[in-house]
Write a structure and sequence with these properties.
By secondary structure, this protein is an alpha/beta fold. The protein has one domain. It has 9 helices and 8 strands. Helix 3 (41-49) packs across helix 4 and helix 4 packs parallel to helix 8. The protein is globular, with a radius of gyration of 17 Å. The chain starts with a strand and ends with a helix.
Length: 224
């Protein structure tokens, strides 16, 4: 079955975003953007969101099965709809993201998202699934996405009851083990549940993947 992943956005108005916007920032990503260069949205959002977004990008790359000429992983944005994870973003475009609320009642968010979701739906076969790697407990994404995809919109059932860091760890474990998570339709799903048990000990393969991700994250920022 063909499969495309939608990645919920990172927060673009928080403290880590202010590090990027700071003209005195000393780390590489900020310096590149301050010089007027662009960086892939996945790289920027991974810096902003840390382990959770890195987990989403890594997981999507491992398990996506898109049709020909359709991106396998797209990021939900606040004002530009759905963007492939490799889309280059400038500092000014990041500022524009921060100026729009991610809210199903905000037309500047809902309009582009609905446009791109409907376009994506038209390019997917009927027997396909669109997996949302993000929260389904609010309407901010799901209200619009359900209009476009209906029962094809799914989510990892193991996400229910977990926080962002736990979800990021869960996704990396799945990649390390090569075992894809189970999905269920968002339509009619139980949106909230009791907190699941803590993730168990990390095996050597998973530890190596964790270390790689965390080294990348640590190298992003220099204290100043």
């Amino acid at each position: 079955m063909k499969r495309v992943f939608l990645l919920s956005p990172a927060r673009t108005g928080g403290e880590r975003a202010q590090l990027i916007f700071n003209p005195k920032a000393g780390f590489e990503l900020a310096r590149r953007l301050q010089r007027g260069e662009a960086a892939p949205i996945a790289e920027i959002f991974s810096f902003l969101s840390g382990l959770y977004f890195r987990g989403k990008v890594t997981y999507a790359a491992a398990f996506m099965k898109p049709p020909a000429r359709v991106p396998g992983a797209l990021v939900i944005t606040s004002n530009r709809g759905l963007l492939p994870v490799e889309t280059p973003i400038t500092l000014e475009e990041l500022r524009a993201f921060a100026a729009v609320d991610v809210d199903h009642l905000e037309d500047l968010f809902k309009g582009p998202l609905k446009r791109d979701a409907l376009a994506l739906s038209d390019h997917l076969p009927k027997r396909s699934e669109v997996v949302l790697l993000g929260s389904i407990s609010t309407l901010k994404y799901t209200a619009t996405l359900l209009e476009a995809f209906g029962e094809r919109l799914k989510f990892p059932t193991a996400f229910v009851g977990r926080g962002d860091m736990s979800r990021g760890g869960l996704l990396l474990r799945a990649v390390a083990s090569g075992k894809e998570l189970e999905y269920a339709p968002v339509l009619g799903a139980v949106l909230k549940g009791k907190r699941p048990e803590r993730l168990g000990p990390i095996d050597p393969t998973l530890r190596a993947l964790y270390n790689k991700v965390m080294r990348s994250q640590a190298s992003d920022v220099k204290r100043y």
